[in-house]
Give the backbone structure.
Amino acid sequence: MALAPRRAFAAAVITLPLALVPHDRPAPWAWPLPTQRVERAFDAPRTEYGPGHRGVDLPGRPGELVRAVDAGTVTFAGQVGGVMTVTVEHGTERSTYQPVDPTVSVGDAVDRGAPLGTLLPRHPSCATTCLNLGRLRGSEYLDPAERLRSGGRFRLISPDGPPPEPPGWNGSGLVNLLGGPITSAFGMRVHPVTGERKLHDGVDIGAACGTPVPALAAGRVSRSEYRGAYGEQVEIVHDDGRATSYSHLSRRTARVGDEVAAGDIVGAVGTTGRSTGCHLHLMLLVDGNPVDPLTARG
């Protein structure tokens, strides 16, 4: 049965008067690569030299242009521990980029989005080519993903002509959510553990345990708990009343009541609950009923 038309899952498209833009909130950073996705999340070290992941990894291709996340001044362009690195100072904070073959020099002033160099392969924290983006305030490492958010649910459009059509659910890049394949579709199936024929109420996305799981859209976390066969689960209620849930997680990083933006990390892939291996079980609920995330429309 076709779903009734609903408000699009994507951000609302309206003209925002400039007077309503808050001036005490830092502007979001521009994405330094065309692929606007975090492949590995920030994991703050407990001590200065302790283990952790001191930035976020963004997937890319060798030779891609790496761009400045904001206007600033280049303060370093060279090797750090054998890895080519560029550092840009933005007032009280600095952004770092590696591995990058720099086309800028120390002292250069750069604009937001200006090329800093080209992406090199073989960063030590990535299985494939990626950019490690760092954020520092003094000697403190901060989460770059907090500055890469969209900055709200509105975007400015030209007042000339009709507004663009907002994308539906299928425009969200679901299959590439974790860079993995759909390993089990929505619908009736024989359960691989119990042997029962029953509804598979979501889609399974194959990914290695520990892979960060991003929220598909902005919303409020309504559930974050261990839930029987679903294992560790996070559920998010979105602005149009629909909900998504993320199950079999190895850990949950979002708590009930948290407001999350699209792309925020809510947990990590696991195999908790009734599961035969590492994967994400993604559900879409409409009026409390599960529907197929791959065919639902906005």
About this structure: The domain at 170-291 is CATH 2.70.70.10 (Glucose Permease (Domain IIA)). Confidence is low (pLDDT under 50) at residues 1-24, 150-158, 163-176. The chain has no helices and 25 strands.
